[in-house]
Design brief:
Length: about 300
């Protein structure tokens, strides 16, 4: 490795997401649920700084508490770097510095964003030159949500959530996110949903077996109509997340009473996403939630997918 290589640092950025619509179907043979979702990337970003090294390591910085995030080989960013190295035959390693802005285990795909930004950063740092399509294929091996963090924007996801097709979307949407003190584990929320459906004999209907995104969502996105979108927001996982953190119901109610057009659990939760009519309305929601001791952050969507911050 040359001295020049040692000093090089490549930066890449990837967004967090909210699921505008999430329909969960049957469990497949591989243990994953068949889903149909509409993702929107939001302007809360993970910035990954990659530099040459002979081994693989990751450190976190920023205001988000990352105590619960592993920094060994089970970290999603390290998995991403190792996968890219294996795939391309690259023989070195990488040191990753991640500035985290997406809440951990919050249902906003922060780990997926770390993996997506790492793929983009390492591909540039190592000069391995994989095309976007190949990176998306690698991303799907890392997690169901990782391809979307690469692609960004607004998109439909089927299969495990990794099969993406673009959604025709206009306009910009303003979101307020209510953050929880304690995260929720994605597999645990899926398991809770299965348990709930079994307990209440909610058979997966034939329609659910092949879940789909409601037409209203697509129409609202095409029109860029915030009120129509607010009415179309839906998340099948919400019932399970509310059972695991019952206090979230009060958070949703408070946000809606404070002017949010709608509040919904983001993905597997526990972050609650409020759709606001505009930035003034968003501020009012934030003031009201924080007066009740709830931490919030504001963002807009759609945001771009994973990209380099340096040339
Ligand atoms: C719920 C969603 C909604 O977008 O997002 P998050 O709330 O995690 O952000 C996703 O389905 C999460 O995607 P992601 O977090 O990438 O999941 P993975 O790492 O691939 O899978 C973790 C575990 O979640 C469960 N899983 C995930 C996706 C899926 N379609 N069915 C599942 O049952 C499986 O138990 C799997 O082992
Ligand atoms: N780079 C990473 N960033 C965040 N979490 C990670 C990372 N690598 C592994 N994890 C683990 O993945 C779990 C889910 O992470 P995260 O993507 O933040 O939430 P969610 O899946 O709810 O969107 C966390 O509990 C964490 O321990």
């Amino acid at each position: 490795m040359s001295a020049n290589q040692t000093s090089t640092e490549v930066a890449a950025r990837a967004p967090g997401k909210v699921n505008l619509f999430l329909s969960v179907g049957a469990v497949r043979e591989d243990g994953y649920h068949e889903v149909a979702t509409a993702y929107q990337a939001v302007s809360l970003y993970e910035d990954v700084y990659a530099s040459h090294a002979s081994d693989f390591a990751v450190t976190f910085e920023g205001k988000i508490n990352t105590d619960s995030v592993p920094t060994d080989g089970s970290n999603l960013a390290i998995k991403a770097a190792r996968l890219l190295a294996r795939k391309t035959g690259y023989r070195g390693g990488v040191h990753l510095r991640i500035e985290k802005n997406v809440p951990v285990a919050g249902g906003m795909g922060g780990g997926s964003a770390d993996a997506a930004a790492t793929l983009v950063a390492c591909d540039a740092l190592w000069g391995t030159g994989l095309g976007r399509e190949e990176l998306v294929r690698l991303a799907a091996k890392l997690g169901a949500d990782v391809p979307f963090a690469l692609v960004g924007g607004t998109a439909l996801g089927t299969g495990r959530g990794e099969r993406l097709s673009p959604a025709l979307a206009t306009g910009q949407f303003t979101w307020v996110f209510a953050l929880a003190d304690q995260g929720l584990s994605t597999p645990a929320v899926y398991a809770k949903l299965d348990e709930h459906r079994e307990k209440h004999a909610l058979d997966i209907s034939p329609a659910r077996e092949v879940p789909s995104v409601d037409n209203d969502v697509l129409q609202a996105l095409r029109a860029g109509d915030t009120i129509m979108l607010a009415n179309a927001l839906h998340n099948d996982m919400q019932v399970a997340a509310l059972q695991m953190q019952p206090g979230l119901a009060d958070v949703i109610e408070l946000g809606e009473r404070s002017g949010a057009l709608a509040g919904i659990v983001s993905g597997s939760g526990p972050t609650v996403a409020f759709l606001a009519e505009d930035s003034d309305a968003a501020l009012e929601i934030q003031v009201s939630l924080s007066a009740n001791g709830i931490r919030t952050v504001r963002a807009t969507g759609p945001a771009s997918g994973a990209r380099l911050l340096t040339d």
